[in-house]
Amino acid sequence: MIHDLNILLPEIFLSLSIFTILMLGVFIRKSFNIVFNLTSLILILIIAIILNNSNSTEKIFLDSFIRDPFSNYFKILILISSLFILNSSKNFIKENRLDKFEYPIIILLSILGMFFMVSANDIILFYLGLELQSLSLYILASIDRDNLRSSESGIKYFVLSALSSGLLLYGCSLLYGFTGSTNFDLIADQLSKENVGAVFAMVFILVGLAFKVSAVPFHMWTPDVYEGAPTSITNYFAIVPKVAGLALLIKFMFIPFSNILIEWQTILIFISIASMILGAVAAIVQKNIKRLLAYSSIGHIGYALAGVATGAVSGYESSIIYISIYVVMNIGAFSCLYLLKKDGQYKENISDLSGISKKHPLLAISFLIILFSMAGIPPLAGFFAKFYVFTAVLEQKMYALAIIGLLTTVISAFYYLKIIKTIYFDDSVITFESVKNKTAQVSIFLSCSILLTFFLYPSILSNLVNSLFLS
Amino acid sequence: MDFPILSTLIFLPLISSFFIFLSKDKKNISSAIYISLFSSIGTFLLSLFLWYSLDVNTADFQFVEEKSWINNFIKFKLGIDGISILFIVLTAFITPICIISCINSVKDRVKEFLIAILVLETFMIGVFCSLDLVIFYLFFEGGLIPMFLIIGVWGGSRRVYSAFKFFLFTLLGSVLMLVAIIVIYWLTGTTDITQIYEIKIPKEYQNLLWLAFLSSFAVKTPMWPVHTWLPDAHVEAPTAGSVILAAILLKMAGYGFLRFSIPMFPHASEFFTPLIYSLSIIAIIYTSLVALMQDDMKKLIAYSSVAHMGYVTLGIFTLTKQGIEGSIYQMISHGLISAALFLCVGVVYDRLHSRLISTYGGLVNYLPKYSLLFLIFTLAALGLPGTTGFLGEFLILTGTFQKSYLAAMLATLGVVLGAAYMLWLAKRVIFGVTKNSKIETLSDVNTLEIIMLASLAFFVIFFGFYPTPLIETISTSVNGLIDNYQLALNSR
Questions:
Q1: In whole angstroms, what is the distance from residue B256 CA to residue B300 CA?
Q2: Are A131 and A165 in contact (CB under 8 A)?
């Protein structure tokens, strides 16, 4: 029993500390700062706990919860990215009067949900984790409750997401009905192509998951929610739930659905191609940076899904590499937004960026590096992300997917170039204040350093990811 | 060879660009120029040392460096042979000239400009050193970023359009090459080209892979009909940008044909020879005619570049010793001559801010030194014996006559047209009556400009009369290339 609890230690610690700081928040006046700092501390402590714990594969509680290198990798990715997102957005949160003590607590709750998502080995546990995460996200989307757009985006997200959760749950119950089990391993044994009902269930579950990672054609909520929610929340939305969603998707394809690869592969190829094309084409006409990043994230998810669509371990690995580099790029990109301030207002139009290369050369060059990396131009890290994915895709001889994917990178390069053009070629319209935001600057610096120096030794990441699937 | 001399050569400019980045703004612009000049001349001397110590009697790769890079997958492998060393020396020679030229012509954001040039130099040398397809692709594509900025930030009025066109055309061509590279990896299990030469790619795959590589190289060369980005990019780029573009970036594709397309896909190369012949002939004749019509000096030279590169592709795919040697010679010669011509345009552009031919006329009366230099380079560009331009075209035509009379005769027509547009350009700019009163007030070339142009003129004439050092360097490697090609064709 103690052994089981030891495996569950990160989750237990997280839940207990959430209750503790919730109490602190309720009983201490003006508690935002202390709750916020404790949250950062908790995140760091959990990273330490996970790293300190053994990394071996163990299943507990009737095989419903699994602790393995795969889940640990994703937990650490989630924690590190949340840590950076929270801290670089602290100034933004305070200046936009979002400094309620619930803010960091809800973020922690959603992280708890994601922990169960990536560690689940059972449909029920996975669904509980997913719902805990989703409910926290609904609140986060509308946290700026006096702002019409924020509330609207919260409602929109809630309605559509609840619908998709319903589909997902329906799929889960079908899966239980046709296989007689809720455990992933047992389902995997039961599933076969002849089991038509289970194939239906798979489609429903896939739809639900595609919604969570905002893949086309279930992406409609993304641009509106990204634009409407406060930037700090958008930042969180664009990175952390995507990581958890992709982890879950890979897990589903890898364990329960591995026997019906033929059935889901076509669907995933379609979703992947559609996301890549829509992400590339629709972003061209955007004028708002957050909206543009929404479409760009749809496109990026398309590339990550192309790796999953191969149905091979090398493909899953390439997807994980892709999403890790995506996290680094997006943390940098959003941190740049926290530095674009004029008269107390944070600017989010692309045209506002014009001419920052003269007044803020360092910010401009960071933007340049991040955007070229997102476009996938070598020798930046974004190129390697795409390179790994398409290597895996071509290993399975899926030539059409690879060629379409690479052609969409050319289209998407166009809109990234358009932002670079605004930054570097146009004359400045407005002058931004020089914002003192050390943590955002550190995030940008780290992100750019990783993107720039990744090519020196790309094996670090690929070795790490390779080791996830060894067990 | 224990000392990683090629890595040093590649990363020296990158490291010095980092120092420029650290140097303070405004006051220390001259220090930025000194750092960049110092490092680029150092790179040039190092490349000369490399040329000197290269053993030209073997076709093997030398100074090979190998490090594991992506585990069990790709090695960071560098190495040079007789063909690549010439391009490396050319790159290292042109870069300091570009840096000198920007002292006069770039007024705004000098520091960033120098950084862009040096980063670009790293990528260009890297392209010519890499012995691994992925490393090659990395350097080949990476060069897009600084060039895009050079055109876009420091360019002329339509710079945005030109920069986008340049970037997207090249990227579009290259992604297909990336697909081909990955497919080759799955076919042969390696991306190390020396191993791929040995393993031999199955015949049924060769044609498609060859076409994928062509899509990239054709855009970069540029070959008709995908050459349209070049005139735009040249016209809008600042002088130094045009020089690098014409002198080195265009040569990457020619080098790519020699290093990758022919040795890796011999059957496809033979199969597609007629296609290359026709595209090259069209490029030579059509763009020469277009060049005749231009009223913008830079555009005229840009179109003449397309025509000259047409000779290069023609010569390479004759697959004869003369043809290939001529092509390499022509690439080096065009690198020197077109660089010099763009610099010449830059010299008068800095003074009058016009590139239109009609603005000028009768320069010989007021700028005698400039006119002499300009005339040397126009005559070299049309292939006057005694300059490098002659020998390249002559060898290529000799090679072509062995393979196809028709192609050779049509290509010879291009020589006449080349003479026509170049002489007409000289006549309208240098000679004639001075219509523009501003010309009378112009100052002749200053010391820096003389250093740049005279050093280029020296090599154009020196190698025109005494081509032996160049031919000796490439001869063994070209023989090896042709032997392997014939061997592969016969072993069908």
A1: 26
A2: yes
Confidence of residue B8 (pLDDT cuts 50, 70, 90): confident
Helix axes A32-52, A9-27, angle to 10 degrees: 170
Secondary structure of chain A: what % helix, strand, coil (to 5)?
75, 5, 20
B22 CB contacts (<8 Å, ≥6 apart)? none
The residue with greater pLDDT, A261 or A326, is A326
B487 and A CB contact within 8 Å: no
How far is the C-alpha of A408 from the C-alpha of A403, rounded, in Å? 9
Q: DSSP state, B432?
A: S
Contacts of A2 (CB under 8 A, 6+ apart): none
Taking the mean position of all CA atoms in its chain, how far away is CA B429? Answer: 26
- Mean per-residue pLDDT, A12-20: 93
Distance separating alpha carbons of residues B381 and B383, to the nearest angstrom: 5
The CA–CA distances, whole Å, from A315 to A144, A392, A395 equal 40, 5, 9
| Residue owning tokens 């995030």 | A443
Q: Express each pLDDT in B427-475 by its tens digit.
A: 888 887 877 777 777 777 888 888 888 899 999 999 888 888 888 888 8
Q: Is some CB atom of chain A closer than 8 A to the CB atom of B148?
A: yes
Is residue A341 classed as helix, strand or coil in its secondary structure?
strand
**Is B88 in contact with B63 (CB distance < 8 Å)?**
no
Does pLDDT of A240 surpass 90? Answer: yes
Closest residue by Cα to residue A284 from A273, A300, A296, A297 = A296
Band (A198; pLDDT cuts 50, 70, 90): confident
Tell me if chain B has a CB within 8 Å of the CB of A428: no
What does the mean pLDDT of chain B come to? Answer: 87
Does any CB of chain B come closer than 8 Å to the CB of residue A5? no
Question: Quick one: which of A94, A153, A138, A460 has its CA closest to A290?
Answer: A153
8 Å CB contact of A403 and B148? no
Instruction: Establish how many alpha carbons lie within 13 A of residue A417's alpha carbon, considering only the half-sphere containing its beta carbon.
Output: 28
To which residue do tokens 């969603």 refer? A245
Residue A163's φ and ψ, nearest 5 degrees, are -60, -45
**What percent of chain B is modeled with pLDDT above 90?**
15
Choose the weakest-confidence range: A215-219, A357-361, B40-44. Answer: A357-361
| Interchain CB contact of B110 with A (< 8 Å) | no
**What tokens does A170 get?**
């329906």
In Å, what is the CA distance from A366 to each residue of A356, B110, B430?
Answer: 11, 19, 47
Nearest by CB to B70, from A394, A414, A458: name it.
A458
Say how many domains are in chain A.
Answer: 1
Count of CA atoms in the C-beta half-sphere (13 A) of B418: 27
CB-based contact A410 B168, cutoff 8 Å: yes
Nearest chain B residue (CA) to A381: B138
The number of beta carbons lying within 10 Å of the beta carbon of residue B225 is: 11
Give the residue numbers spanning the domain of A397.
2-468
DSSP one-letter code for B257: I
**Would the pLDDT of B40 be above 70?**
yes
Chain A residues within an 8 Å CB radius of B164: 414, 417, 421
